[in-house]
Each structure stands twice: as structure tokens, then as C-alpha cells.
Design a protein that fits this description.
Blueprint: H1 3-16, H2 23-28, H3 35-44, H4 49-56, E1 67-76, E2 87-91, E3 96-110, E4 115-124, H5 126-129, H6 133-148
Antiparallel strand pairs: 1-3, 2-3, 3-4
Length: 154
């Protein structure tokens, strides 16, 4: 199995699909992938924050005027309540508590070029790792400062 090609194709599918993001939908619209092959790939592949950074690092345009944004998002999983990371949590989009997976993201913004890059993320899983969203934010900020060493103003 060519993991890098699968990952690239799946990411392109997620970016371009405006209607449906399921494995079944991908399989129905692709000659290269079946639902089962994509399911196997997704079970075996791990897209860790380090892999994200490795893929965007060369594209990031550092700036002394840059700023770092942190955001939390809840991926709506109202029909997947049995999935391990699904829990009841507040969704700002829905303006109510929903079943979903929480993700905290770190975005690097260059105001001079008016471009931005997601450079880090954490899955919010307080039952699994005992960390709250502010702890995830703090860890990502430390990574920007001490590992990635990206300049920023705000």
C-alpha cells in the first residue's frame, strides 16, 4: 500500500468535496479506491502533528510581524456516538451541545503575504490524556517557540 499516495489522494478528496466526506462517497467517485481499501488505510495511517509540520514547513513564510492563532473546533459526529473520541461538547457553530470530536489548532499567519498555515493541532480527549484545551494551547505555543522557532509578534 502506497501510504503517501493514499494520504495525498484522501487529503485532496477532503479539500475538494463540498457535499460528503465519507469513505463510501470517495469509493463511489473513484476508480482507484474502494471503501474497504480506504478504511484499511485510515485505520493504519497516523497523521500526527509532526507529519503535518513536515508537510507545511517548507511553505511557511516566516515574518517578524506574524501572529499565532489558536482555535478549537468540534467535528460534528452526532451519528457516531460509539466512536472512541466522540463526546458531548459545546459547538460554537451549532450554538448548542453536540456529540463531536474536539480539535485545538495552531495557525501561523503572515500579515505581509496575507497567507496562513495550520502548523499544529491536538485532539481534545480529556478522558484519554487528562489535558484541557488550555494545556494543549500551551504545549503548541512552546513548540512554536522552542522547536519550530517561528518568529511572531502577537
Amino acid at each position: 500500500m502506497n501510504y503517501s499516495q493514499h494520504r495525498l489522494d484522501y487529503c485532496q478528496f477532503l479539500i475538494s468535496s463540498q457535499i460528503n466526506y465519507t469513505q463510501t462517497y470517495l469509493a463511489d467517485h473513484s476508480e482507484d479506491y474502494s471503501h474497504d481499501s480506504m478504511n484499511r488505510f485510515l485505520r493504519l495511517d497516523k497523521l500526527r502533528p509532526r507529519v503535518l509540520w513536515e508537510n507545511v514547513r517548507e511553505d511557511v513564510a516566516p515574518s517578524e510581524q506574524a501572529y499565532i492563532l489558536f482555535d478549537d473546533v468540534v467535528l460534528d459526529k452526532r451519528y457516531s456516538r460509539e466512536a472512541r473520541l466522540v463526546r458531548r461538547q459545546w459547538s460554537g457553530n451549532e450554538k448548542r451541545v453536540i456529540y463531536g470530536i474536539g480539535i485545538v489548532t495552531c495557525v501561523y499567519v503572515n500579515p505581509e503575504t496575507e497567507k496562513f498555515w495550520v502548523i499544529d493541532y491536538r485532539v481534545y480527549d480529556p478522558e484519554g490524556d487528562d489535558l484541557n484545551k488550555l494545556t494543549h494551547l500551551s504545549e503548541m505555543l512552546d513548540t512554536v517557540l522552542y522547536s519550530k522557532k517561528l518568529p511572531f509578534q502577537t
